[in-house]
User: Fold this.
Amino acid sequence: MAAAASGAHADQGNAPASGSPPAPAIYVPAGELPGMPGDEGAVAAGTETAGADATGSGVDASWSGAAATRPGASAASSGAAVDAPIVAPVPFAGIVRRRVVVDVPATTANLGSGYDALAMALDLVNRVTVEVVTGPSVELTVRGEGEGQLTGDRQNRFVVALELGIRWALGELPAGIGWRIDMRNEIPLSRGLGSSAAATVAGLVAADALTGGRLDARRQLELACELEGHPDNASAALLGGFVVVAMTGGRPEAVRFDVPARLRAVLFVPDRPLSTTAMRAALPREVPHRDAVFNVGRAALAVAAITSGRYALLREATEDRLHEPYRAAAYPELPLLVSAAREAGALGACLSGAGSSIIAFADDEPTLEAAGDAMARVAAEHGLPGRIRPIAPRNAGPIVVDEE
Assistant:
């Protein structure tokens, strides 16, 4: 049986019953921007401000608001009409704001068996501030992850998505427009935690905010998946929570669920980056029929486990035969790290995305700590430096703050 195992690569609140608009996500008024970790008076980055109800109810992405509700956003974009604030004039037609701040989450994709189909947003956040400037320049400051590594021009993934979104919203990019961008990044690069998808989603959400809500959720989802080349991380970053996604007729269809609050995770993040393109190229063009059947059943089990709260099923649900065995050739510590977390009592463990991070799940703190310690011990025994990071799933998608 042929498997779509190769390809190019370029984390909202309560979800009502499927088929009805969800409660809008959070708009944070100017001056009430939550702090990042390390800021005085900071709130926890990625706090579930949209309010998960732990019911696991799903909602089709065509209704899911991708960005936080903004003053002046259309009902099609936000689901609610609000009064637009008085803002200073912006010297570019169609651009209604001067400065926007976007928080966007990390994501973990596949969850073992759900290759390119399952993903979850994580409570690890990049914050991007973009300011409109006159003159076709790009000024980029990066603090945290990616500092000294990210390109500061129009090839930057955030800028690519920002300008693509504005072209879709306005029909063209205003002549002479430029950007002053400040990134405060918590998401490591090339570690399987959706840093590329986060940049893409942040750019599209910023474009929507700067143009007054002209990109609806469906368009943002389609553009994000087009830029990323596959839909899993992009969907989870845009919608938050736990996402099931498939390409149908060339278009992404995503359904999100809230992740119940008691499910937690721990990451082992190696100091070794892995190229997503290279890790996808390691996969075969075809896989045995029995392996495809194995994964189909376990991917379905993963959805049932997370949405029903039957977490004991995650042990089998996170097993995989489609990608992890082949990727282990380039990452020989992978099966050892996964086995260590499982043997320490983790509910399930797997490679996060294309790696190199490993994610293990638990529903109590002692098991979470034991799984992290076990992965750290095996990594040290094999000379693989890295760090352990306990983390929570995040039910909120992007949060937009309009300061001007």
